[in-house]
């Protein structure tokens, strides 16, 4: 231990004698290691870190539905209860509805919007949670058809809304006009098993207004719940999967129409369960790849710097060898210096990781549901950062240390060493640095090009200057039958706000990633296999098309005459019209929707096409053209409604929201505004992965280019210094300064050419993995590669210009006299 401390103290003293080198190295390592630690922090929070209050998370698993062996999706309530009661591999299985629901909390001053999460009654027991006050739901009381009107408060909501009053336990609160009894409070620090955070938990079987009905709970066809379970002691994931396979096969034999091709899969528990992992995991891998590339650039740059430092210390090392030091001891001394540098860089990396993690979290735009994702720098992050520092020390220090220890004792004692081997090794490092730098800059360029392509896409309607106000009419106690009249009165109130140009409303928000289905759809008179029309729906008001400037290219828009009690009508988009009636006028054609199974004919309803709307983007800006159908809100009323408020540019978002709240309060003080966002924010949400990847890759690309420029400058300056005598002789023999400059510039350009060639080959392979997240841009985009190569050439020129001018200004007389 004493020997190790002595080596560390010596390394610190030696590094203190070279402050510029040490500070540059530590800052570079802090950025390189910190970027990787920040991405790992996010992955750790989602996939690895334990959830506060949960017992033995290693035994928890997520369970999802597959279709023909693919996917990880939601299930019906009956599927959940069958699994809970019949599969013995789990000590418990719970279910919950993933997206928190907005509810109206009755209060003296009017309605207050809160969010609830619907869970099975055994939810808390399976997770092993302990209440802060009161108790949790009683699983024995969970029965379909028997309302369970209990509520559990989150600790944060109990503290903020009820000031931690224990007397609230056992009291009634009003949610959506129904009375619920507060039975308990969740553990402190626990906000839910996913990143979506509610204020309260309600039972799945509460059967309250705007919550799942008994019909929904008894339906096997509906799929709306995610499941998780706790493995029994001694049961492995593989054994649990085998049990699920047997269970799924039994369900398919028992209910072939419902479960044909469906199975169940098990995976480790995550705060992003289900299909969300298919988006989050690749996105984090892309970010980690970008951060890994900048670390490789840092390592190769630092290795080159350490090799140059070793060359400058060649006489010192030769003296140590002459005095009896072993080459092994010298390698240990130089590696200790590398470890001290990496350790210091790792400390700085924790600060960089803390800052980057919060920057990433703040980059997420406002979401339509509450989200909480803590990004702790826990022991996993510390262990990852420490391990990365050790690996970095080995990558940056080992080769230079071994090379420096192989010094030529006699030659280095006589003069400074300018060994060709050292130069060749530095050239290898610089070439590798340029290779990784090019890959990173190409990645950033492709994402930036994808964002540019998305920005230039015409969604088919107006996005700028439109805000979306979301209301849940059931929070005010309104029924489906009352919703059309209520929505129209609210529309009139919003339209009277100064600066508002038009107002329309609809069930779905374009570009928010969601879809709506109202049943199977087909042309009248067409039946049998292949007759069903696969399309998304929206339920809209007559003013919807005007508010979004979405043109009707044929026929007419909806009017107030399209109401309940008159024949159903619909508007289709151009793609659906062309596909179904290629040689006919679509206006006047009749569609049918409903349940087309034998014996269900009474559910089939006709829809007469009255107009054709321009093709548009529906789920997200990058989707391929798809068929779409609109139906009138008055004929298909729904209590969740989104008002599209097109306004003049002079009003601020805060001012408009205040006016909207006032208009709603003037209509009904007990009806809360669920949320209000610009339509642009919904569009941006669909491109969030590309936007964040472009930001991270772009920022790291700038850092990599800066490091590459420093590396090129260093190797070129070292080459000029080592060839001073040669350059002096050339000038003495008549070489002009321009020729000397070209010689030095060619030296840097040659390194860039080798690095660019290797980087191009690596980029062509690596960017093929990005194809699924690049919208409107090929992974082989020639403009991106051309600009990247030109940028790298510019960095090379900047890095070699100063040494080239210094070489051209060499005084041959002084140089030869010094010899």
Give a quick summary of the entry.
The protein is of the alpha+beta class and 819 residues long.
Structure description:
The chain is 49% helix and 16% strand. The strands form four sheets. Strands 4, 5, 6, 7, 8, 9 and 10 form a seven-stranded mixed sheet that branches. Strands 15, 16, 17, 18, 19, 20 and 21 form a seven-stranded mixed sheet that branches. Strands 1, 2, 3, 11 and 12 form a five-stranded antiparallel sheet that branches. Strand 1 and strand 2 form a beta hairpin.
List keywords for this structure.
819 residues, single chain, alpha+beta
Average per-residue pLDDT, rounded, comes to: 83
Task: Compute the separation of the termini in Å.
Answer: 47 Å
Number of DSSP strand runs:
23
What proportion of the residues is helical, as a percent range?
40-55%
Largest sheet: 7 strands, mixed
Structural class, by secondary structure, is alpha+beta
Oligomer: single chain
Strand content: 15-25%
Contiguous uncertain segments of 5+ residues: 415-419
Shape category: globular
Number of distinct helices: 24
Radius of gyration: 34 Å
């Amino acid at each position: 231990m004493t020997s190790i401390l002595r080596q560390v103290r010596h390394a610190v003293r030696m590094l203190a004698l070279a402050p510029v080198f040490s500070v540059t190295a530590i800052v570079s390592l802090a950025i390189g290691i910190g970027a990787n630690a920040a991405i790992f922090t996010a992955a750790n929070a989602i996939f690895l870190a334990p959830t506060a209050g949960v017992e033995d998370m290693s035994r928890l698993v997520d369970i999802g539905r597959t279709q023909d062996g693919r996917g990880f999706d939601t299930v019906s309530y009956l599927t959940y209860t069958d699994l809970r009661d019949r599969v013995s591999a789990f000590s418990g299985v719970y279910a919950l509805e993933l997206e928190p629901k907005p509810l109206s909390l009755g209060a003296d001053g009017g309605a207050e919007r809160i969010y609830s999460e619907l869970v099975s009654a055994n939810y808390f027991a399976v997770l092993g949670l302990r209440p802060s006050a009161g108790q949790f739901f009683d699983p024995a009381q969970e029965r379909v058809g028997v309302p369970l009107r209990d509520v559990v408060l989150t600790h944060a909501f109990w503290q903020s809304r009820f000031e931690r009053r224990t007397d609230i336990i056992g009291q009634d609160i009003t949610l959506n006009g129904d009375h619920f009894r507060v039975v308990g409070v969740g553990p402190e620090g626990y906000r839910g098993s996913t990143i979506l955070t509610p204020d309260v938990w309600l039972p799945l079987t509460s059967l309250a207004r705007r919550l799942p009905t008994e019909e929904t709970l008894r339906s096997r066809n509906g799929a709306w719940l995610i499941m998780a379970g706790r493995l029994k002691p001694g049961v492995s994931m593989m054994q649990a999967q085998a049990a699920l396979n047997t269970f799924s096969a039994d369900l398919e034999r028992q209910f072939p129409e419902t479960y044909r091709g469906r199975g169940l899969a098990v995976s480790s528990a995550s705060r992003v369960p289900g299909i969300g992992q298919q988006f989050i995991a690749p996105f984090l891998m892309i970010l980690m790849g970008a951060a890994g590339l900048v670390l490789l650039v840092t390592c190769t740059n630092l290795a080159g710097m350490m090799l140059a430092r070793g060359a400058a210390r060649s006489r010192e090392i030769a003296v140590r060898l002459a005095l009896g030091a072993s080459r092994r001891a010298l390698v240990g001394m130089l590696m200790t210096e590398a470890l001290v540098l990496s350790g210091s860089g790792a400390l700085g990396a924790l600060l960089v990781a803390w800052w980057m993690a919060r920057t990433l979290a703040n980059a997420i735009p406002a979401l339509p549901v509450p989200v909480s994702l803590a990004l702790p720098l826990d022991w996993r992050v510390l262990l990852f950062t420490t391990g990365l520092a050790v690996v970095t020390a080995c990558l940056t220090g080992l080769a230079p240390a071994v090379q420096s220890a192989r010094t030529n004792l006699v030659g280095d004692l006589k003069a400074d060493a300018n060994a060709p081997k050292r130069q060749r090794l530095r050239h290898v490092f610089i070439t590798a640095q340029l290779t990784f730098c090019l890959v990173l800059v190409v990645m950033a360029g492709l994402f930036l090009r994808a964002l540019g392509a998305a920005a230039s896409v015409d969604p088919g309607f107006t996005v700028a200057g439109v805000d979306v106000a979301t209301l849940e009419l059931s929070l005010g106690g309104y029924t489906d039958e009352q919703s059309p009249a209520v929505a129209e009165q609210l529309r009139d109130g919003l339209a009277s706000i100064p600066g508002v140009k038009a107002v329309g409303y609809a069930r779905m928000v374009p570009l928010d990633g969601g879809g709506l289905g109202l049943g199977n759809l087909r042309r009248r008179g067409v039946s049998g296999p292949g007759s069903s029309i696969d399309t998304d729906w929206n339920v809209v008001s007559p003013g919807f098309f005007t508010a979004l400037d979405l043109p009707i290219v044929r026929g007419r828009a909806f009017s107030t005459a399209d109401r309940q009690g008159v024949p159903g009508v619909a508007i289709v988009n151009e793609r659906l019209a062309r596909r179904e009636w290629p040689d006919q006028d679509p206006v006047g054609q009749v569609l049918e929707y409903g349940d087309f199974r034998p014996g269900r004919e009474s559910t089939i309803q006709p829809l007469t096409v009255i107009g054709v709307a321009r093709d548009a983007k529906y789920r997200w800006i990058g989707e391929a053209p798809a068929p779409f159908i609109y139906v009138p809100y008055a004929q298909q009323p729904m209590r969740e409604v989104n008002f599209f408020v097109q306004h003049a540019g002079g009003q601020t978002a805060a001012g408009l929201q205040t006016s909207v709240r006032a208009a709603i309060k003037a209509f009904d003080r007990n009806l809360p505004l669920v949320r209000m966002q610009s339509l642009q924010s919904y569009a941006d949400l669909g491109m969030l992965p590309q936007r964040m990847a472009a930001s991270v890759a772009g920022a790291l690309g700038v850092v990599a280019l800066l490091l590459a420029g420093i590396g090129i400058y260093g190797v070129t300056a070292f080459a000029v210094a080592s060839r001073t005598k040669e350059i002096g002789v050339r000038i003495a023999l008549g070489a002009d300064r321009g020729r000397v400059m070209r010689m030095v510039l060619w030296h840097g350009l040659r390194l860039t050419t080798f690095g660019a060639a290797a980087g191009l080959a690596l980029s062509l392979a690596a960017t093929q993995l990005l194809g699924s997240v690049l919208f409107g841009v090929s992974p082989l985009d020639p403009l991106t590669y051309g600009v990247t190569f030109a940028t790298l050439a510019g960095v090379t020129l900047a890095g070699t210009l100063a040494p080239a001018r210094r070489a051209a200004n060499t005084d041959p007389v002084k140089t030869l006299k010094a010899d």
